[in-house]
Amino acid sequence: MNPEPPARRARLPLSLRRSPVPWERQRPTWRDARPSLIAEALKRAQARPSGNWYVVGASASLGGDRPLARTVADHEVVLWRGAGGRLHAGPGACPHLGAPLGDSPVRCGALVCHWHGLALDGSSFAGWEPLPAFDDGILLWVRLDEVGGEAPLDAPVVPVRPAHARGVTAVYEGRGRCEPEDVVANRLDPWHGAWFHPYSFVDLTVVGSPGGDGADDGFTVGVSFKVAGRLVVPVQAVFTAPEPRTVVMRITEGEGAGSVVETHATPLGPDELGRPRTAVTEAVVAASDRPGFVFARWAAPVLRPVMRAAAARLWRDDLAYAERRWHLRSTGRFPG
Q1: Is 301 exposed, middle or buried (0-12, 13-18, 19+ CB in 10 A)?
Q2: Exposed, middle or buried, 48 (CB in 10 Å: 0-12/13-18/19+)?
Q3: pLDDT tens digits for 110-133?
Q4: Which residues contact 239 (CB under 8 A, 6 or more apart)?
Q5: What distance in Å separates the CA atoms of residue 134 and residue 12, rounded to the nearest whole number?
Q6: What is the C-alpha to C-alpha distance for residues 231 and 208, in angstroms, rounded to an integer?
Q7: Cα distances (Å, whole numbers) of residue 198 to 21, 39, 184, 252, 317
Q8: Environment class of 317 (CB within 10 Å of its CB; exposed 0-12, middle 13-18, buried 19+)
């Protein structure tokens, strides 16, 4: 008996919603989104090791003769590329009189303080001590053992991604008045997607929830991304938290299988009113085995701003969610 021929894939990665349900008539998800289930997933994420590594920006944002200045948990950090593109990082204050090194130029691979000319080549000098730094090709990380307080790891916990040569990458950066756990909790609540983001998601169903700390400790979601009108792209995706400040959404079935969306939350420190601030860095790595995707890679410089704009629209809402969660927690009114 001859085997059945494989099902033919549609020429375009689109589907037509046959019987679209209005927003107000979709099935309520509040019973499924049990606060205890989200809290337990968050607790397990917080118990995983990070090795004291923190995401501080996009790899593409650092280069040339300008350093990158960041704050992590009220610690000033500066990063720059030295000779041969090697990544250097360390405290953001000059050891001489405290000048902001983030405002200083890079010359011949050294960071030269613009107050008095003290030059740093990335090695220990005059009381200035370098920090471990890591460039994973998409994101920059700094290790702050004093802040994290964990056993340090030699490298950060970087999620598995599509091969760089076959993907299109975009990085969004935003800030909110909340703590990292509020950002992570938002991502560990997939049920809110079609209700809170109807402009992007429809027909969302959580088909699997985590039950422990094993390999299946993730939320499996069937969802359709809206394109225009009734045109959608249906996929299955899994949300996991590989470390305390990272949540990864990976498409496992449908168009773009293997593509990932990584959300990283980094504490910045309090604002002038004492409220916590958190940076959200989201890396989208889109990939497809369709022959036509080569044109998407060719058009990546044009696509990246579009991808960042889409992420920014989602995070306008999701940061409001995270900020509201923190506000309720800080005033003892959070029902979860």
Answers
A1: exposed
A2: middle
A3: 999 999 999 999 999 999 999 999
A4: 187, 188, 190, 218, 219, 221, 247, 248, 249
A5: 39
A6: 26
A7: 11, 25, 21, 22, 11
A8: middle
pLDDT tens digits for 155-184? Answer: 999 999 998 878 999 999 999 999 999 999
Residue 198 has pLDDT above 90, yes or no: yes
**Could you report the per-residue pLDDT of 312-325, keeping only the tens digit for each?**
999 999 999 999 99
Selection from 203, 65, 67, 213 nearest residue 140 by Cα: 67
State the distance between the two ends of the chain, measured CA to CA, in whole angstroms.
57
Q: How far apart are CA 164 and CA 159, in angstroms?
A: 13
Pairing of the two strands 133-135 and 110-112: unpaired
Who's near 278: CB < 8 A, 6+ residues apart? 175, 176, 177, 178, 179, 180, 182, 183, 265, 266, 267, 268, 322
